[in-house]
Amino acid sequence: MNKRRLTLLGSCVLLPLIALVTYAAITRINPNSQHSVGDQLDELNGVVIYFNGGVNTVQGRNLSKDGYNLGLRYQCVEFVKRYYFERHGHRMPDTYGHAKDFFDPTLNDGSLNAKRAMLQFRNGSAAQPQAEDLLVFAPTLFNRYGHVAIIASVGSGTLQIAQQNPGPFGSSRENLELTQREGRWHIESARVLGWLRLPPTDEPPAAERSYSQNQ
Fold first, then answer.
1. What share of the chain is helix, strand, coil (3-state, %, to 5)?
2. Cys-Cys with 205: which of 89, 94, 193, 195 at CB 3.0–4.6 Å?
3. Could you tell me the pTM of the whole model?
4. Residue boundaries of the structural domains of the chain
5. What is the tens place of the pLDDT at every residue in 57-109?
Protein backbone atom coordinates (compact mmCIF):
# COMPACT_ATOMS: atom_id res chain seq x y z
CA MET A 1 0.00 0.00 0.00
CA ASN A 2 1.50 3.34 -1.06
CA LYS A 3 1.96 6.38 1.15
CA ARG A 4 -1.00 8.23 -0.33
CA ARG A 5 -3.39 5.38 0.45
CA LEU A 6 -2.03 5.08 3.98
CA THR A 7 -2.58 8.79 4.51
CA LEU A 8 -6.14 8.57 3.17
CA LEU A 9 -6.90 5.55 5.35
CA GLY A 10 -5.50 7.32 8.39
CA SER A 11 -7.65 10.36 7.68
CA CYS A 12 -10.79 8.20 7.36
CA VAL A 13 -10.11 6.75 10.81
CA LEU A 14 -8.91 9.87 12.60
CA LEU A 15 -11.39 12.47 11.37
CA PRO A 16 -14.52 10.73 12.76
CA LEU A 17 -12.66 10.06 16.01
CA ILE A 18 -11.62 13.70 16.30
CA ALA A 19 -15.20 14.79 15.55
CA LEU A 20 -16.58 12.51 18.28
CA VAL A 21 -14.02 13.70 20.85
CA THR A 22 -14.72 17.34 19.96
CA TYR A 23 -18.47 16.83 20.21
CA ALA A 24 -18.16 15.08 23.57
CA ALA A 25 -16.04 17.93 24.92
CA ILE A 26 -18.26 20.73 23.60
CA THR A 27 -21.45 19.16 24.97
CA ARG A 28 -19.98 19.09 28.47
CA ILE A 29 -19.54 22.84 28.74
CA ASN A 30 -22.12 25.54 29.35
CA PRO A 31 -22.11 28.23 26.64
CA ASN A 32 -25.17 29.99 28.10
CA SER A 33 -23.98 32.76 30.42
CA GLN A 34 -27.57 33.46 31.53
CA HIS A 35 -27.78 30.26 33.59
CA SER A 36 -25.59 28.06 35.77
CA VAL A 37 -25.93 24.30 35.94
CA GLY A 38 -28.52 23.50 38.62
CA ASP A 39 -30.55 26.70 38.17
CA GLN A 40 -34.31 26.23 38.40
CA LEU A 41 -35.85 26.94 35.00
CA ASP A 42 -39.42 25.77 35.38
CA GLU A 43 -41.70 23.41 37.28
CA LEU A 44 -44.52 21.06 36.41
CA ASN A 45 -47.11 20.34 39.09
CA GLY A 46 -44.60 21.33 41.73
CA VAL A 47 -41.71 19.26 40.37
CA VAL A 48 -38.70 21.41 39.47
CA ILE A 49 -36.97 21.45 36.08
CA TYR A 50 -33.27 22.30 36.32
CA PHE A 51 -30.76 23.73 33.84
CA ASN A 52 -28.08 21.29 32.71
CA GLY A 53 -25.85 23.35 30.39
CA GLY A 54 -24.31 21.10 27.73
CA VAL A 55 -26.47 18.07 26.97
CA ASN A 56 -23.80 15.62 28.15
CA THR A 57 -23.10 17.42 31.42
CA VAL A 58 -23.55 15.19 34.48
CA GLN A 59 -23.63 16.35 38.10
CA GLY A 60 -23.58 12.98 39.80
CA ARG A 61 -26.35 10.52 40.54
CA ASN A 62 -29.50 11.64 42.33
CA LEU A 63 -30.79 9.10 44.87
CA SER A 64 -33.75 9.14 47.22
CA LYS A 65 -32.96 8.88 50.91
CA ASP A 66 -33.70 5.17 50.80
CA GLY A 67 -31.49 4.63 47.74
CA TYR A 68 -33.94 4.66 44.84
CA ASN A 69 -32.08 5.74 41.71
CA LEU A 70 -33.62 8.89 40.22
CA GLY A 71 -30.96 9.24 37.53
CA LEU A 72 -28.03 11.45 36.61
CA ARG A 73 -28.48 15.14 37.44
CA TYR A 74 -29.77 17.05 35.43
CA GLN A 75 -30.43 14.79 32.51
CA CYS A 76 -33.88 14.32 30.95
CA VAL A 77 -34.31 10.89 32.54
CA GLU A 78 -33.69 12.31 36.01
CA PHE A 79 -36.56 14.76 35.61
CA VAL A 80 -39.16 12.23 34.46
CA LYS A 81 -38.25 9.68 37.13
CA ARG A 82 -38.19 12.36 39.81
CA TYR A 83 -41.54 13.66 38.54
CA TYR A 84 -43.32 10.32 38.98
CA PHE A 85 -41.53 9.64 42.26
CA GLU A 86 -42.36 12.99 43.84
CA ARG A 87 -45.84 13.45 42.46
CA HIS A 88 -47.14 9.86 42.44
CA GLY A 89 -44.73 7.88 44.61
CA HIS A 90 -43.97 5.75 41.54
CA ARG A 91 -40.84 3.62 41.47
CA MET A 92 -39.70 2.00 38.24
CA PRO A 93 -38.62 -1.64 38.69
CA ASP A 94 -35.70 -1.07 36.31
CA THR A 95 -34.02 2.04 37.71
CA TYR A 96 -31.40 2.34 34.96
CA GLY A 97 -31.35 2.87 31.20
CA HIS A 98 -31.01 5.69 28.71
CA ALA A 99 -34.01 7.66 27.50
CA LYS A 100 -34.45 5.45 24.43
CA ASP A 101 -34.66 2.37 26.68
CA PHE A 102 -37.93 3.59 28.20
CA PHE A 103 -39.77 2.41 25.07
CA ASP A 104 -39.85 -1.33 24.37
CA PRO A 105 -40.60 -1.87 20.65
CA THR A 106 -41.42 -5.54 21.24
CA LEU A 107 -44.56 -4.77 23.26
CA ASN A 108 -48.08 -4.64 21.91
CA ASP A 109 -49.81 -1.28 21.97
CA GLY A 110 -51.41 -0.62 25.35
CA SER A 111 -49.61 -3.44 27.15
CA LEU A 112 -47.61 -3.17 30.37
CA ASN A 113 -43.98 -2.13 30.18
CA ALA A 114 -42.82 -4.14 33.19
CA LYS A 115 -39.45 -2.41 33.45
CA ARG A 116 -41.17 0.93 34.00
CA ALA A 117 -44.41 -0.37 35.57
CA MET A 118 -46.36 1.77 33.09
CA LEU A 119 -48.68 1.12 30.17
CA GLN A 120 -47.01 1.71 26.80
CA PHE A 121 -48.63 3.15 23.67
CA ARG A 122 -47.10 3.50 20.23
CA ASN A 123 -47.19 6.75 18.28
CA GLY A 124 -50.29 6.07 16.22
CA SER A 125 -52.22 4.41 19.04
CA ALA A 126 -55.99 4.37 19.41
CA ALA A 127 -55.37 5.74 22.92
CA GLN A 128 -55.03 9.52 22.95
CA PRO A 129 -52.00 10.97 24.74
CA GLN A 130 -52.86 12.49 28.10
CA ALA A 131 -51.36 15.04 30.45
CA GLU A 132 -48.70 13.44 32.67
CA ASP A 133 -47.87 10.73 30.13
CA LEU A 134 -44.18 10.07 29.59
CA LEU A 135 -43.12 10.80 26.00
CA VAL A 136 -40.18 8.89 24.48
CA PHE A 137 -38.08 10.21 21.58
CA ALA A 138 -35.81 8.09 19.39
CA PRO A 139 -32.04 8.67 19.15
CA THR A 140 -30.57 10.91 16.48
CA LEU A 141 -27.16 11.20 14.83
CA PHE A 142 -25.97 13.61 17.51
CA ASN A 143 -28.02 12.15 20.36
CA ARG A 144 -27.60 8.40 20.57
CA TYR A 145 -29.37 8.16 23.94
CA GLY A 146 -32.79 9.48 22.88
CA HIS A 147 -34.90 11.85 24.97
CA VAL A 148 -37.82 11.72 27.40
CA ALA A 149 -40.30 14.36 28.55
CA ILE A 150 -43.63 14.70 30.35
CA ILE A 151 -46.78 15.77 28.53
CA ALA A 152 -47.82 18.92 30.40
CA SER A 153 -51.13 19.49 28.62
CA VAL A 154 -53.17 18.33 25.63
CA GLY A 155 -55.23 20.74 23.55
CA SER A 156 -57.05 20.72 20.24
CA GLY A 157 -54.49 19.73 17.64
CA THR A 158 -51.49 20.23 19.86
CA LEU A 159 -49.84 19.13 23.08
CA GLN A 160 -47.17 20.72 25.23
CA ILE A 161 -44.27 18.86 26.81
CA ALA A 162 -42.14 19.77 29.81
CA GLN A 163 -38.54 18.65 29.55
CA GLN A 164 -35.15 18.86 31.20
CA ASN A 165 -31.86 19.09 29.31
CA PRO A 166 -33.10 20.14 25.85
CA GLY A 167 -29.74 21.87 25.28
CA PRO A 168 -28.13 25.00 26.70
CA PHE A 169 -30.41 27.29 24.69
CA GLY A 170 -33.43 24.99 24.46
CA SER A 171 -36.76 25.63 26.14
CA SER A 172 -38.22 23.59 28.99
CA ARG A 173 -41.56 23.71 27.13
CA GLU A 174 -42.25 22.65 23.56
CA ASN A 175 -45.46 22.31 21.54
CA LEU A 176 -46.00 19.35 19.22
CA GLU A 177 -48.72 18.84 16.65
CA LEU A 178 -51.30 16.18 17.50
CA THR A 179 -53.62 14.70 14.88
CA GLN A 180 -56.19 11.91 14.68
CA ARG A 181 -56.37 9.81 11.52
CA GLU A 182 -58.64 6.82 11.07
CA GLY A 183 -59.22 6.60 14.80
CA ARG A 184 -55.55 6.71 15.75
CA TRP A 185 -53.55 9.46 17.43
CA HIS A 186 -50.33 10.70 15.93
CA ILE A 187 -47.82 13.11 17.43
CA GLU A 188 -46.39 14.64 14.29
CA SER A 189 -42.71 14.13 14.96
CA ALA A 190 -40.71 11.33 13.39
CA ARG A 191 -38.69 11.10 16.60
CA VAL A 192 -41.63 10.27 18.88
CA LEU A 193 -41.75 6.53 19.53
CA GLY A 194 -44.72 6.60 21.88
CA TRP A 195 -45.91 7.37 25.38
CA LEU A 196 -46.10 5.62 28.73
CA ARG A 197 -48.85 6.04 31.35
CA LEU A 198 -49.28 5.11 34.97
CA PRO A 199 -51.81 2.28 35.30
CA PRO A 200 -55.13 3.35 36.81
CA THR A 201 -55.55 2.72 40.52
CA ASP A 202 -58.44 3.16 42.90
CA GLU A 203 -56.26 5.01 45.38
CA PRO A 204 -53.14 6.61 43.93
CA PRO A 205 -50.13 6.38 46.27
CA ALA A 206 -49.24 9.47 48.24
CA ALA A 207 -46.45 11.57 46.80
CA GLU A 208 -43.02 10.80 48.14
CA ARG A 209 -40.71 13.77 48.56
CA SER A 210 -37.94 12.10 50.58
CA TYR A 211 -35.27 12.58 47.98
CA SER A 212 -31.78 14.07 48.08
CA GLN A 213 -31.30 17.06 45.79
CA ASN A 214 -27.83 18.38 46.48
CA GLN A 215 -27.22 21.48 44.40
1. 20, 30, 50
2. 89
3. 0.85
4. 1-29, 40-197
5. 999 999 999 999 999 999 999 999 999 999 999 999 999 999 999 999 999 99
